[in-house]
Amino acid sequence: MAADDVVGVAHSLLLKATGLGDDADHMHVVSICLFVSLLCACIVLGHLLEENRWMNESITALLLGLCTGAIVLVSSKGQSSHVLKFDEELFFIYLLPPIIFNAGFQVKKKEFFRNFIAIMLFGVIGVFISFGVISTGSWYLFPKFGLPDLSIRDILAIGVIFSATDSVCTLQVLNQDETPLLYSLVFGEGVVNDATSVVLFRAVQTYNFGNFTPLEGFQIAGSFLYLFFASCFLGIASGLISAYIIKTMYFGRHSTDREIAIMLLMAYLSYILAELFYLSGILSVFFCGIIMSHYTWHNVTRNSRTTTKHSFATMSFIAETFIFLYVGMDALDLDKWKQSQSSFKESAALFGSLLGLILLGRAAFVFPLSALSNYSTKSPGAKINIRQMVIIWWAGLMRGAVSIALAFNQFTEGGDTKSSNQATLMVTTISIVLFSTIVFGTATKPLISWLLPPKYRSNLDAVGISPNVSLDPDFSIPLLMDTERDENGVIERTGIRRILNGLPHPQSISMLLTAERSKIHHIWRRFDDAYMRPVFGGRGYVRLLSRRSMSMNIPEEDEALENEVNN
Amino acid sequence: MAADDVVGVAHSLLLKATGLGDDADHMHVVSICLFVSLLCACIVLGHLLEENRWMNESITALLLGLCTGAIVLVSSKGQSSHVLKFDEELFFIYLLPPIIFNAGFQVKKKEFFRNFIAIMLFGVIGVFISFGVISTGSWYLFPKFGLPDLSIRDILAIGVIFSATDSVCTLQVLNQDETPLLYSLVFGEGVVNDATSVVLFRAVQTYNFGNFTPLEGFQIAGSFLYLFFASCFLGIASGLISAYIIKTMYFGRHSTDREIAIMLLMAYLSYILAELFYLSGILSVFFCGIIMSHYTWHNVTRNSRTTTKHSFATMSFIAETFIFLYVGMDALDLDKWKQSQSSFKESAALFGSLLGLILLGRAAFVFPLSALSNYSTKSPGAKINIRQMVIIWWAGLMRGAVSIALAFNQFTEGGDTKSSNQATLMVTTISIVLFSTIVFGTATKPLISWLLPPKYRSNLDAVGISPNVSLDPDFSIPLLMDTERDENGVIERTGIRRILNGLPHPQSISMLLTAERSKIHHIWRRFDDAYMRPVFGGRGYVRLLSRRSMSMNIPEEDEALENEVNN
After folding, report:
1. Which of A447-461, B244-258, B388-402, B451-465 is modeled with the greatest confidence?
2. Which residue has the higher pLDDT, A10 or A49?
3. What separation in angstroms does the CA of B41 have from each of B151, B288, B327?
4. pTM
5. Domain boundary among A52, A75, A98
6. Cβ contact (<8 Å) for B254 and A50?
């Protein structure tokens, strides 16, 4: 692969040198070739560095992108480091949907819904707090660092841009199996946060801030709620329609490919329909993923199940790696660096103050909202201890492609910065993204192993208990109930019967709340079994049907595969 | 799904009507949305029409595209039928590679290589003959039909454009399992034909025909040979590198997704590298597919095997459907129809004469070259009888997206026709593509069942024998040898020992030739086992290794899955 890289770069340079590459179509082929070669190199390097505790695929891709940018820059004698221009459309229309869809498809649903309130607190209220802190700080500090004449809109845009955490990088530094509570909190926050940021950004761009009234505040809140629920509804509807189509028509009878194609297309349709109606495609495709993994996935043939599970993950993986590679390559865009008239001292001050504001802005909501969440839930299972708070704070500090995409939208026209201020802000954004991803990203894994040593992690975090709570037998029943599966239905039913008969023997009020949540879960299960599954299929339902009608032979591994996805 | 379509179209019209859709970015979202909805509708309709003997997915997609075009046309009051402009890049860079790669990946390798000489005769010499017939005919006839001042280059381009058969549609009308000989001949020809057409088209566009000398003829031949072998080499090298990387690193240990990603990316790299070096990406990715199914595919984990097999097929399926949908929608482009100044009579004459030339041009090489192939092989197994010749002639009459793409390249500038002549030729090309796909396409399945009733097909065509040859026991041994597998190794070894010991008891010279081919196959197998497999892995090799080192449990179905792909 390395040989291919060299050939690709060499040829691109050769073409540039000889002027043969002027042909726009062929330049495009050259850049695709370079990107595909680099993606292959990233995968191989990522594999070789797998055991390394500091590195991960994102950072490898970023660094590889930086190196390639530097090589192109040096060999073109400082003329250009660009191979492709950053294209918002490429990012929002093609790269982001597979990542978010796969996140919804593979997320542990129970964990996610168990922490739903905390996730919404972080993802919605958190963004507003962070936005307030960063905007206020920028408004106060930036004029001192050589940016005197920023409009109120630019200041607010900066607030939004640097409040958008990077859910892609989070996926790589936190492990769903090792730290499920942290993963579901930070990642769930990331998805909701992306949506909130995009909405807030649109509000900042369209509202007239000259005469801002409290009424307009309510309007923004109202439009946010509309957006949130409409997007979720759209995603859920797409997922259910796909489940219904596949269950009714039983495609597998004729072609596995049709099933896979319809899942893929319906998922993408949920994203693009949301964008069509100016909703949040991110939220829509995320919920579509959840619904598809709950219903549609169980209606397809065994081969389709294996295929969708792995091919969605692969698409997401390629898109992620591509984004980081791209951000790395874009960082050395000399035009922007030259256009910015800030001195080194001013740039450093700007960079430092923004980094400080990001740290502060996140601290300003993680600790209070965690405390609030702890206060409101009472259940020890969902309580967040101080060590976990620090990790949540830290793991969400990375800024990524969403920040870059928003900054490009705000500070460039057709990809080019038009003024010194715009150039300075673009350069600062790119520096912050690089720094936070590389420095905060590399430090997260070691931080987690330092704050949460494995002996605490595997058992306690798995059921979501903070390490200082002792496990007594009475506690363990409702907790097991939460992680209940069809396989250990006995425990489930015993626990629920106790609760329904009013015999939970609670030791404290928190037990009742845990029971309450289990009751909601139970009601959902009954609703699901009675009304949803007969129409939309789902786990066990279709297999039973197909076994009867087609007398297919489905082996044991099937169950294992299902369990992998279906928790 | 139908509801989604309606919403998509309605919204697009609403946007157009209200002027909200003027925003270029959002128009793009609208068109993606429409296409994704239509793709879903095609899949569902294709499924419902599965049992219909006249229809197939291509024709469904074409008709659906036509209907959508008509709806958009009517509702925009004749203003526009375009949702997306035909984009050569989209076609050649993104849609064609997955189709051809999948064809190589799923092709029955033995069948393909057994008919290699016939395929090359059809795919290379055939194109030149057809090109000659159509060019000469056009040069003689077109001036009479209102196209007096065509340049020699345009005439020759027309010859190439209408010599390119549509391998995509062929895949859908011929069945690999029912008529393997015909499938491998017609499809193999299609792939080679695509490559030949593209090369010939480039030659037509770049050579100076003012002073054409025989030397230049040799140059074209030389550049074709270079192109052919360099492209094959590139494809084979990419495939082998991917096999080597996966075998050496054993990705599956860490992540299935990495294996799938590297296969996907290396396959695409073979295509795009070929394009980078101005070679034939089609040939390159086809051979990469063959190599990957022989080596790489056997080196990956079981889940990756299932996933790649189905996801490559799905990608190809989506790309095919998209192309037909697109061609259908593009057909009603009123601008071109208006710009063409030909009268109805002239247009009809042009259309009719071109159709006649296509029929004639194909007949001019299928029948003589089949006879030549029959004369040269002598073996009854590879002989093509007259009924099969008719089917080969007929199934290759369809003209498809390659013709359209080449015509766009020749007769438009940035997607728009500039003169009446150009518009007339574009309109004629689109009409021919639509007519041939719909009329010839629908008639192929019935034609096959009429000419080759199932009682002949299943046994006789499976071993490639023309129905009038009787099966006597002595014949059956070498024929079984051709279809030999590891499973029935006894027959294989007996047969080969007989031949190697000079005891084949041949009844005729044809037996010796069959033995000859088996010997080549045997030499290849020994070379493969001795030198290739130890380095690049492959069937059985890695499984043995992994069984020993990882003590993995690989069940029986694995074999079944392997057999499906590995013949």
Report:
1. B388-402
2. A49
3. 43, 32, 16
4. 0.79
5. A75
6. yes
Q: Taking 70 as the threshold, does the pLDDT of residue B46 lie above it?
A: yes
Q: Comparing C-alpha atoms, which of B377, B370, B372 is closest to residue B393?
A: B370
- A237 and A153, same domain (yes or no): yes
Among candidate residues B28, B43, B75, the one where a domain is terminated: B75
In this structure, the answer to whether residues B529 and B449 fall within a common structural domain is no
Chains A–B, number of C-beta pairs less than 8 Å apart: 161
CB contact under 8 A, A306 and B311: no
Instruction: Mark whether B458 and B476 lie in a shared domain.
Output: no
Residues A238 and A371 in one domain: yes
- Residue A484 CA to residue B37 CA, distance in Å, equals 38
> Is residue A11 assigned to a domain?
yes
User: In this structure, which amino acid lies at residue B541?
Assistant: Y
**Does residue A122 lie in a domain region?**
yes
Give the nearest chain A residue to B307 (CA atoms).
A307
**What's the mean pLDDT in B461-481?**
36
Where b means 16+ CB within 10 Å and e means fewer, B350-367 reads bbebbbebbeebbbbbbb
Task: Write the residue in B43, B269, B306 that is nearest to A36 by C-beta.
Answer: B269
CATH code: domain of residue B295: 1.20.1530.20
Contact residues on chain A for B276, CB-CB shorter than 8 A = 8, 11, 26, 29-30, 33
Residues of chain A positioned with their CB less than 8 A from the CB of B309: 307
Assess B276–A contact: CB distance below 8 Å, yes or no. Answer: yes
Tell whether the model's pLDDT for residue A298 goes beyond 50.
Answer: yes
Both B447 and B492 in one domain: the answer is no
What would the mean pLDDT of B506-527 be, rounded to a whole number?
Answer: 66
Residue A182: closest CA among A473, A2, A418, A396: A396
Whether chain B has a CB inside 8 Å of the CB on A6: the answer is: no
SS3 assignment for A354-391? HHHHHHHHHHHHHHHHHHHHHHHHCCHHHCCCHHHHHH
Q: What is the pLDDT of residues B169-210, one digit of tens each?
A: 776 777 777 778 888 888 888 878 877 887 788 777 776 666
Quote the pLDDT of residue B491.
35
In a domain, A263, yes or no: yes
Residue A170 lies in a domain: yes
B57-77 tens-digit pLDDT: 778 888 888 888 888 878 776
Q: What are the chain B neighbours of A313 within 8 Å (beta carbons)?
A: 256-257
- Give residue B209's pLDDT: 62
Q: Which domain holds residue A525?
A: 472-565
